UniProtKB/TrEMBL annotation:
This is Peptidoglycan endopeptidase. GO terms for biological process: carbohydrate metabolic process; proteolysis. The keyword Phosphoprotein does not apply. Belongs to the peptidase C40 family. The lineage of its organism: Bacteria, Bacillati, Actinomycetota, Actinomycetes, Micrococcales. Transmembrane segments: none annotated. Residues 161-279 form the NlpC/P60 domain. PANTHER family: MUREIN DD-ENDOPEPTIDASE MEPH-RELATED.
Length: 279
């Protein structure tokens, strides 16, 4: 119980103020803690977080492959060739754009493969075979191509005509040579001496000296099947068949070696050998 004295004012005890001071201190302490926590968080943020960057991926592509086109040509030194004689020359050229090509070229005659040649500075050269058969033949050159270079081909046509048997060629060289009985050449001939000399010179076969013996040296063929280079026999005389009802012979005294029509009514045609009539 509290006793008051008149004229004095009673104050509440100071004890209750302590809790307020404690609250202020706690508040100040709490503010300090908040400051301490906030600063490290702000400082620890990475610089890139403030200015974000975008990473860009660049797509790369392989360069496009360009295919180049080749062009093949076949050139012939001549378009007609005589079988067994001087042959035609074949020149093959291959270009890729404006540049010359390299590699292999397959040559064909008709549908049959002939040979494979190698290009040198874009060119290959060969010769047509002497034994190519009579007729027309297409010569085709096929370029096989290369990496990113197209295949190509070219062709040309050659005509092979029938050649002249060597027996005939040799015989014609002596046109104008005089006839002399018993002569075997080369300055003069009789009929069997002429045929014997020509066949030997042509490298075919050595014939007997007389006309009657030459009659039996080979096989007899019909007039229809006779070929230039066969012997034409009639009693007492021999000549060389030229084809087309023509022959070459040493006729008789006072005459010379000449080409003339077959005058015998029923001559015998003798095939001395296959070589004699081949071109």
């Amino acid at each position: 119980m509290t006793t008051t004295t008149p004229g004095h004012v009673l104050h509440a005890p100071s004890t209750p103020a302590r809790p307020r001071r404690a609250s202020r201190r706690l508040a100040a302490l709490a503010g300090g803690l908040a400051l301490v926590v906030a600063v490290p968080v702000a400082l620890s943020a990475p610089a890139s977080a403030a200015t974000p960057t975008t990473s860009t991926t660049v797509a790369t592509h392989a360069p496009a492959v360009v295919t180049k086109h080749s062009k093949t040509k076949v050139h012939l030194s001549k378009k007609t060739q005589t079988r067994g004689k001087a042959v035609a020359k074949v020149r093959v050229t291959v270009h890729v754009g404006r540049a010359v090509a390299s590699g292999k070229v397959v040559l064909k005659v008709g549908a049959k493969t002939w040979k494979t040649v190698t290009l040198k500075h874009g060119t290959a050269r060969v010769q047509v075979s002497k034994t190519l058969k009579v007729g027309k033949h297409r010569i085709t050159a096929i370029y096989q191509g290369a990496s990113h270079v197209t295949r190509s081909k070219g062709s040309a046509v050659i005509k092979v005509k029938k050649g002249t048997p060597k027996v005939v060629s040799v015989a014609k060289k002596y046109v104008g040579t005089p006839y002399r009985s018993g002569a075997s050449g080369p300055r003069a001939f009789d009929c069997s001496g002429f045929t014997r000399y020509v066949f030997k010179k042509a490298g075919i076969k050595s014939l007997p000296r007389t006309s009657s013996a030459q009659h039996h040296v080979g096989k007899t063929v019909s007039r229809k099947n006779a070929k230039p280079g066969d012997i034409i026999w009639s009693p007492g005389h021999v000549a060389i068949y030229l084809g087309g009802n023509k022959m070459i012979d040493a006729p008789r005294p006072g005459k010379t070696i000449q080409v003339r029509s077959i005058w015998q009514s029923n001559p015998t045609f003798v095939r001395v050998s296959a070589k004699a009539v081949s071109a």
